[in-house]
Amino acid sequence: VQGCDASVLLSGMEQNALPNNGSLRGFEVIDSIKTQIEAICSQTVSCADILTVAARDSVVALGGPSWTVPLGRRDSLDANVPEANSDLPGPTSSRTDLEDAFRKKNLTTVDMVALSGAHTIGQAQCGTFKDRIYNETNIDTTFATSLRPNCPRSNGDNNLANLDTTTANTFDNVYYTNLMSQKGLLHSDQVLFNNDTTDNTVRNFASNPAAFSSAFTTAMIKMGNIAPKTGTQGQIRLSCSRVNS
């Protein structure tokens, strides 16, 4: 939320913000990469750069596009929990909420729709989509019914479901065809295709994988370039989960 500075990796801070709590995971993967890099090349490669490269390599490993990651970021000395609570969009965000949140970081509506396509992989907790599968009308009935056994009305809030139930472990453009079939898992997914201004962008990405890949890589580079710390700003952390002592 303060830029691409690895503040989210600091233990017990932004990780506990409402939009992140119980949702972000995989920190041990970054810690392992950092440990291996430090053994070879001490205090040279920042956690912010590791996180940015890992994001790209994860997409590539799952069949998605590649892009060139600019390097040379430094790590923050702090985190901003209030800003994480106020600025990060959530699963119940409206289209205008999403546009406003992304615009605040100088990302366009097309960037927002493209970055939402990262929901072609990953999972969400039942508590984030329970209201949608029981109470919303712009959802495929069979799809909603299939999700209810693992997400009952009264409990099971931590149970997981795939954000893309069609090709859960492949980075592709099926997320958008799911939206066109009213099979977006989160409210904040389906608002992108709901007789609104982003419908045509969703249609374009659903029918044209190359258009999605191009827009996604452009947006990822832009997001990785948000307010990076360089020069003497910040530090190169020795451990990604805490600032240097």
TrEMBL record:
It comes from the Eukaryota. Binds 2 calcium ions per subunit. Binds 1 heme b (iron(II)-protoporphyrin IX) group per subunit. GO terms for biological process: hydrogen peroxide catabolic process; response to oxidative stress. InterPro entries: Haem_peroxidase, Haem_peroxidase_sf, Peroxidase_pln, Peroxidases_heam-ligand_BS, Secretory_peroxidase. Residues 1-244 form the Plant heme peroxidase family profile domain. Residues 78-97 are annotated as: Disordered. Keywords: Calcium, Disulfide bond, Heme, Hydrogen peroxide, Iron, Metal-binding, Oxidoreductase, Peroxidase, Pyrrolidone carboxylic acid. Its cofactor is Ca(2+); heme b. Heme b binds at residue 119. Ca(2+) 1 binds at residues 1, 3, 5, 7, 14. Coiled coil: none annotated. Ca(2+) 2 binds at residues 120, 164, 167, 172. It catalyses: 2 a phenolic donor + H2O2 = 2 a phenolic radical donor + 2 H2O. Disulfide bonds join 47-240, 126-151. Substrate binds at residue 89. GO terms for molecular function: heme binding; lactoperoxidase activity; metal ion binding. Belongs to the peroxidase family. Ascorbate peroxidase subfamily. This is Plant heme peroxidase family profile domain-containing protein.
